[in-house]
Write a structure and sequence with these properties.
Structural class: alpha+beta
Strand order of the largest sheet: 5-6-4-3-2-1-7
Largest sheet: 7 strands, mixed
Strand content: 25-35%
Helix content: 25-40%
Order of helices and strands: HHEEEHEHEEHE
Amino acid sequence: MHRRWGRLRIHRPDFERLLRASDNWIASAPGNGVIALVSIGRLHHSPGVVDLGVQVADHLHRRGIGTGLVRLAARHALAAGAYTLSVYTERTNVPILGLLRRLGPASASHDGSHTELQMSLSDITSHSRLTPDEDFHAPSHIARRAQGPDRP
């Protein structure tokens, strides 16, 4: 958070502003409730670049849920005029690093124990990279919630 927002703690007005500036999807499944979420938001200092946040319940990793949600968010961002996806994560975050590696080439820069990856949204949304092992087993419900009164 410090690298992206300049501080370790985000105060409520900033939190609400960030929600208004991002698009979010939440996946749920019967008997499990919320199982995953993905969020993208434009980086104000980098035109055409969106920042990605994704979480999938630990017991549901490696089932294509995160991949499907990242592709969904990438298609949305590409249609909205963005062209690059940015992810800032710990170098030890093997699940997201593996997911992104399977989606296409990325440029990486390192900041201590963290890595920032940037990828072309068109590479992520290209269906030519799909393999039978990446078949997306969709949760029963994916809800999009655009935050704030100025969002559709």
